[in-house]
Records
---
Amino acid sequence: QTKAALDIAINLPEARKKYYMAEGVGHYGIFNGGKWRTDIAPVVEDWIAQHKG
């Protein structure tokens, strides 16, 4: 769903888009637990740091 949303967000510059596939993570685990802390949160935090301001 996220990939499809990025594809149709034509007014969002490509430089602002980030797609990350978290392998082996279910719907609940994407924002909770070890995979979030070690794999996903750092990607989100880096994206935010690159695009703020």
---
Amino acid sequence: MKVKPECYPCIMRALLKTARRVSEDEWLLRKVLGETMDVLRNSHTERTPPDIAAESYIRVAKLLGNRDPYADERRDLNKLAKKVLPAAEKLINAAADPLFAALKIAAVANQLDALTTELSSPQKILDAYDAAPFHAQDYEEFRNDVQNAATLLFIFDNAGEIVFDTLLIECLKKVNKNLSVTGVVRRAPMFNDATYEDAADAGVDRLASLTDCGVDVVGTPLHTCSKQFRDLFLSSDLVLAKGQGNYETLEGEVRPAQPFAGKAVYFLLTIKCEVIASFIGRSVGDAVLIKEG
């Protein structure tokens, strides 16, 4: 998805928020905004929002002298999610269709990066699960694909929500006992995206092998990922990608006439902005499972 005018102030806010995790010095904050504006000013309109955000993050992190301003938040998000996990697991096990329930709770958990202060108790996240609309018109096709797949590439999004992704992987393996899952994380810190350390802390490594896309990015821009990762992407029977960043970078690369056209990808996310809501045709706050490619 190409960057829209509305994306620019959003990127600015994200980098200012990042800087404030390190310092409240106004001179430094102005330098951070200036650095971000320089990236925005020199970015062509064919770039995706995550691509611009990633370049801004790397430059700002260097300016701050801190490559990982979100380290504490990622640990806290995982800790918070683990408190909710038993209640979430109970809800999934009681559902008429546990896989559908696991997909919805994983999609609702995609809010964790934006709503950390609100999701402070198990009941609140369960309330969010009950309240959030879940549009999953491609669910039956997804379930059928899971049953027939030998390999699944699961592209994770944020720390915190990755804890709930373990419940989803467990359900996927119950639907297909022979399913081999490879999880994709960040090789280096990038905002609050899940890293190898976060995935291991969440327990993903007991359910799936772990890899990264070979570059320091936000989302999964295939044209810049390593050849090794692109080969893995293309050879996987099924691809499931979490979150807006992965949607913004991947959906355009699997559309007709694009380099990876014909490779189906399922996206699981909560819509967090009007740009994505308009693009998908849903509302902000909706949880969705959609297929592209």
---
Amino acid sequence: MKIALNIEGVGSRRGGAEKYAGTLARWLTAAGHHVYVFAREVDAGELPAGTVVHRVRPFCPPGLGFLRSYLFARASERALRGQQFDLIVGFVKTWYQHAYLAVGGAHPASLDSNSKRFRSRLLRAVWWAGKVLSIKQWVFRAIARKQFAEGHCPHVIAPSRMVAEHFQQYHGVPPERISVVYNALDPTASLPDAAGVRESFRRRQGLTSDDVAVLFVARNYALKGLEPLLQAFAAVASDHPQARLIVCGSRRDGRYRRQAKRLGLDGRVLFLGFVDDIRQCFAGSDVFAFPTFYDPCSLVVPEAMVAGLPVITTRQNGAGELVREGVHGFVVDSPWELEQLSDRLARLVGDAALRQRMGEQARAAARTYTVEARQQELHDALRRAAGDPLARPALRDAA
């Protein structure tokens, strides 16, 4: 097929959707499709040879940066109109497409979940007021109205059943117009010498053979639930002196260092900041805890599983659908269910046999999340989108 990707930027350092666009271009090219990319910016080396790149760079007046995404979406529509493509795939903030890859989830669902970080009703109300008054949020809503206008709804490819349900709930997309394709596990996610890396990592961090390391990995510590995790861990640490919490992914950790100190966790929590190769952290740990407030389908969950770690996450994480309760780990109802979270942590920290059994089963399950299987599922979904008789009429006229 002749396929166009409609996205503002392509690059592994830009974000999840931008990284995924490059991966998708490589998959489609390897499958024999002809790929065209309509983007404002494309980082060098991100696209395979033979990809045709159309630069779409609409003028954005100084001081009006909040309009950048809207102006790009409008300009990319103009660039694509009249060209003949079997399929146009859009991402996040575009509206001219047959298929919509919802790698970032549904924005209204993200906002709802994000607001739950605040336990105080007053703080939550203030946060919502800021979003209601935000011009940037107005722009997002304007884009969404165009994306899912009646009679113009693209075929949505969701990374989890949770996200699929959100698109039905918030945007009125009928279930027959949604395909679910989970994220593939990067074949380089596991280390060939995991035992050696584990020993080296633990020695550098001052961990003994008796210590049980609980790992938390994220860039956005607030959204991914570090605050409730520290509270739950404090309850566990008092009864389990061997418990240690490793926090990595961001250098913006001052607030959480202060929280750990207030909770009496000096020496029990290791803040590593940004880590170049996160696989060494997985290899050196014993449990993975990720009590996120919202994640469409986090990649770190299957990465932890393939490293042989039992996982604790929440129902607000689409990747929780990959975790069989009591088999690969535990899925708690929400990050603020502190008793539930601390109970699951205590069970894993205090039982080496349980950790080993769950870790082995998690690794076996994760090894089935192959790129090949996910590629086939994605290709099938894209072909359904290309043949969808309810696709945007303007696209059908142009094709």
